[in-house]
Amino acid sequence: AGGRRLAALQLLVKEGKLQGDVPVSCLVFTPEHAVAVSLTENTQQEAMHPADQLVAFKTLVAEGKTAGQIAAAFGVSPTTVEKRLALANLAPKFIDLYRESKIELGQLQALALSSDHAQQIAVWESLPNYQRTAYMLRKALTENEVSLSSPLARLVGLKAYRAAGGTVRQDLFAESGKDSVYLQDVALLNSLATNRLEAVAQSLREAGWRWAEARFSF
Question: pTM, whole model, 2 decimals?
């Protein structure tokens, strides 16, 4: 921290407006506080590149800071910290592309659906340049999953699906609550939905209907 102030002092000395041996007050911090001090300095004075901020947040976590502590220190919500950490944990390739302005924030957010670096890179490389939109990246990562907003998922319900051992993928950056959750065990979801529909069909048979069949579609 203080690079611009040092440069300003050196300029004043060069211009003869300040003696080269004038005492200057400095604060010395221990190495474990260096990242937090640097991040605070750059946030308050001149914004650093977002990619550098992501790396700084990740470094603070590696040093033992919790998301809550980071949020309190920099005046942001814990959710904001979690989102930035999700981006910071992307494959280093994408952080570098972001720093070089070769990838947009929305694309990073879509890739953050997966925590697997190999999968992130594979999906990115599987799409031609013109198709690497946030929508297409998200679609590719969740092609074998079902959104909570789908009719099938709404029929079963998230609570019943989880009670049966179903796993989910959470999209931290989705605008809608239902669109932020993806059900990953499609076979289990289909089984639960079939059982739910079959129970309705059976109740109709017992009520006297000669034919009732449970199907997902006609």
Answer: 0.70
